[in-house]
Design goal:
This protein has 507 residues and is an alpha/beta fold. Helices cover 35% and strands 23% of the residues. The longest helix has 15 residues. The chain is elongated.
């Protein structure tokens, strides 16, 4: 099959992947949609009824999972998305439709089956004691019916495939083998895509028989799935190559991208061009959703006409971001752009806009991390600043520093200040080990930025003892506290500037 190429993306560098600007892309995602429900809380004691932890629930979240998560990622990356799936005629099915509508995902090809429940995964996650540390999954409860679709529902779904294929530029298939993607449905998707000349990219199920995907454009199996389908042990690069090339040859694929967890990815293409993509080094927190992210990113950029090798590199980077997050979190274009920026690995990635910071801190909270906040002009850093920042960082799991803008510094300190512009002051702060994030704010008072950050601990200098601290009432109303950092006598930016400006005496 000749490779389908919508309008080519711009700014593509084959040596270093960049984030190309794509024209509107229409993608159909086929597969089981799941309602992922997260129940968060604290664990402070063991039940007297049985040797099990008691979870004191604090909040609940509901997100689309599996094929639904693929769709959400595609929307975050800017694609127009339609869903080909099946839900039950129950509250959870209606909720998923509402979530998809809010995300702008078309559901005209989504079938309601009154004979099966909507698949739901309830995850209970607890953090240890009142310190909110060590959040981990305690229990998962699945509600599902994995039996194959009835013949009547299968025929109805295939009719919807034929209509939807006329509207899209490519198809992504997320197959978790829960009964919807029968052999007949898979054939309608793959053969229909080939007939239209559009890519069909599959994240396969765990099976020893990958022949059900014959004729697809590309596959993205993981290590275990590949070993099961090929009978090979993927222990080294030579085995990765043999397995990927075997699947390309036997299934008539254009490409096979094997994800190898800690070892990265291996890509084989028709014609013999292979690419090894080493893993991007990250602190792995949760591997949930990484495979779906690979399908979303590799699939989208491949459909857009980007080379498979470049698409694989961007997908590898996206997956490396996903595993640092707890649960399934969509990867946005901004996430990828920051990760691909030359300064990503330096301290400058700590400097965020307020909107970026809010998104990051929401993920940190979901991971059970407590947030400390302090603010100031930080015009000329001295030993007193270093001590107070180290103190602030020790009060919680991470430290956000609110930095006064140049305008607000002038309002506070006068027209002769600041000495350094906010861009330089932010870089200096970000280079400090104690500082996790820096955000610049434009108000003379810190109340508004504190309300936006919602810290667990608010830090001010000991010279504020007995005074009213901006944001104190707000922080304490949410169960937080104020901590006063010890001061170094005689250390202040004003004193340093006065000494520098004082006339020198003597020879």
């Amino acid at each position: 099959m000749a490779r389908h190429k919508p309008p080519s993306p711009a700014n593509v560098n084959s040596d270093r992947p960049t984030l190309p600007a794509l024209k509107p892309l229409r993608v159909m995602v086929a597969g089981e949609v799941i309602l992922d429900r997260y129940i968060w809380g604290d664990v402070s004691r063991i039940s007297p009824e049985a040797p099990i932890p008691i979870l004191r629930v604090q909040r609940r979240e509901e997100r689309p999972g599996n094929a639904g998560f693929v769709m959400a990622n595609l929307r975050a990356l800017g694609a127009d998305v339609s869903a080909l799936s099946v839900v039950g005629s129950d509250r959870n099915g209606r909720l998923l439709r509402e979530i998809f509508a809010a995300l702008g995902i078309a559901t005209r090809a989504m079938l309601t089956d009154p004979d099966r429940p909507t698949t739901v995964k309830d995850r209970m996650l607890g953090s240890v004691q009142a310190a909110h540390r060590g959040t981990q999954q305690l229990l998962r409860v699945d509600e599902e019916d994995p039996r194959p679709l009835s013949a009547v529902r299968e025929r109805e779904l295939i009719k919807r495939i034929a209509a939807e294929l006329q509207r899209v530029d490519g198809v992504l298939i997320s197959d978790i083998d829960k009964g919807m993607l029968t052999p007949a449905v898979l054939r309608a998707l793959i053969d229909g895509g080939r007939k239209r000349g559009i890519p069909v990219i599959v994240d396969p199920r765990r099976t020893s028989d990958f022949s059900i995907y014959r004729g697809a454009t590309a596959l993205t199996p993981n290590r275990f799935e590949t070993e099961l389908a090929t009978g090979m042990h993927l222990t080294d690069r030579d085995e990765w190559r043999k397995a990927a090339e075997t699947l390309v040859r036997k299934l008539g694929l254009e490409a096979c991208l094997i994800t190898l967890d800690r070892d990265g990815m291996y890509l084989a293409e028709r014609g013999g061009h292979d690419t090894y993509v080493p893993t991007a080094p990250r602190d792995v927190y949760d591997v949930t959703g990484a495979g779906d992210v690979v399908l979303s990113v590799f699939g989208m950029f491949s459909i857009a006409g980007l080379g498979y090798s470049s698409a694989a590199r961007i997908a590898n980077l996206a997956a490396s971001i996903e595993v640092t997050r707890l649960g399934t979190e969509v990867i946005t274009r901004d996430d990828l752009a920051r990760a691909l920026s030359p300064v990503h690995s330096s301290y400058e990635h700590k400097i965020l806009s307020l909107d970026e910071l809010k998104s990051v801190l929401e993920r940190e909270r979901r991971a059970g991390r407590r947030i400390a906040f302090t603010n100031g002009c930080f015009d000329l850093l001295h030993a007193g600043h270093v001590q107070s920042l180290a103190f602030a960082r020790a009060q919680a799991d991470l430290l956000v520093v609110g930095l006064n803008s140049d305008r607000s510094v002038r309002a506070i300190k006068g027209d002769a200040r600041p000495i350094y512009p906010s861009s330089e002051r932010a870089r200096i702060l970000a280079a400090m080990e104690a500082v996790d994030y820096v955000v610049i704010f434009d108000d003379a008072r810190a109340e508004k930025i504190i309300r936006a950050v919602k810290p667990d601990v608010l830090i001010k200098g000991d010279d504020w003892r007995g005074k009213t601290v901006d944001g104190q009432a707000f922080v304490e109303s949410r169960g937080g506290r104020v901590a006063l950092a010890p001061m170094l006598d005689g250390r202040s930016t004003t004193a340093v500037i006065d000494r520098l400006r004082a006339p020198r005496t003597g020879a």
